[in-house]
Amino acid sequence: MLRRLTKLLGASSIADPTESSPQRKNGLSFGGAVVLVTGAGSGIGQTCAVQFALHGCTKLFLVDLNRSKLEQTKARIQKEDVYPQIELLEANVTSEASMKAMVQQCVKTFGRLDIACNNAGIGGPPARTHEVSVKDYDMVCAVNERGTIICEKYEIEQMLCQEIGFGGQRGVIVNTSSIAGHCIIPTTAPYGASKHAVNALTRCDALRHAKDAIRVNCISPGAVWTPMVSEAGLPQQFIDMGAAQSPLKRYVTAEEAAYAILYLASPQASALSGVNLPVDCATMLLRSL
Fold first, then answer.
1. What is the residue-level pLDDT of the chain in tens, covering all 289 positions?
2. How many domains does the chain have?
């Protein structure tokens, strides 16, 4: 097809755009990339950190509110017999000063910031809107919405001032949203509102910074089976209900959510920006707006 087009146009040659495409490389590899992960102390964030290390990343900057959990993440990575350079930072994503310092410390340690995974988030207590306390609402939005915006503010600021790097980009950002940002779940109004905001932020920044070689995407997990869920002592009936709500009749694993993040962060996804990828065992098909 390309040769026929060349002949018709009378051009001597047209370069095949796929010749240098990263999609031609086998597997995901993050060698040479500086990766920052918030919420890295447990669940999806911890699993992300492990998977980045297993896929060749040698410079990891891990952030969480709980230092001891970060140490557990580091130990889990080293248990896999991989030993990247790891910087740990105990910080609160709701603090603008802390997030500004986070990016500055990452750059001071590793020289730049290639990939930022904004994963820190909380669920808040399930309740209908008229039952929600303003305190709970403020906390959910402070972490999920405000925290993501603050992180992106300083991540993008840094990426804009650095040269093209890993994967032919100035930087890549992957946010963690939720199917609650797409579907109506009546008892999670504050959480759903905060994740709608993450979706909008992702699209806005993807469009605004496409010309700057900065990609911005997000994933929307469904019910994810994490240690927090498995160790919560929930009744088996409640656990079974969570699995039954998806067409695949099971939970999403933290590994599956992490793989989606790694793909969106990788050069193999170089054509994707502004994408919101559901990782939900097809649950959204039953709850479409």
1. 445 544 544 544 444 433 444 443 458 999 999 999 999 999 999 999 999 999 999 999 999 999 999 999 999 999 999 999 999 999 999 999 999 999 999 999 999 999 999 999 998 888 888 999 999 999 999 999 999 999 999 999 999 999 999 999 999 999 999 998 998 877 788 999 999 999 999 999 999 999 999 999 999 999 898 776 676 566 787 778 778 888 999 999 999 999 999 999 999 999 999 999 999 999 889 875 4
2. 1
CATH number for the domain spanning 53: value is: 3.40.50.720
Whether pTM > 0.70 for this model: the answer is: yes
CA–CA separation, 186 vs 181, rounded Å? Answer: 12
- Spatial separation of the C-alpha atoms in residues 187 and 194, rounded to whole Å: 14
Whole domain around residue 119: which residue ranges? 29-285
Whole-angstrom distance, CA of residue 120 vs CA of residue 134: 21
Choice among 137, 154, 191, 251 that is catalytic: 191
Helices 134-141 & 189-208 angle (0-180, nearest 10): 30
Distances (CA, A) of 75 to 49, 66, 79, 119: 11, 15, 6, 20
Does residue 24 lie within any of the structural domains? Answer: no
Q: Are strands 115-118 and 34-38 parallel, antiparallel or unpaired?
A: parallel
Residues 226 and 254 sit within 8 Å (Cβ to Cβ): yes
Is residue 110 a contact partner of residue 102, using CB atoms and an 8 Å limit? no
Answer yes or no: is 12 within a domain: no
Give domain status of residue 2, yes or no: no
Cα–Cα distance, 190 to 186 (Å, whole number): 10
In a domain, 3, yes or no: no
Question: Annotated catalytic, 83?
Answer: no
Taking alpha carbons only, the member of 267, 269, 270 closest to residue 31 is 267
Q: Rounded to an integer, what distance in angstroms lies between the CA atom of residue 78 and that of residue 263?
A: 22
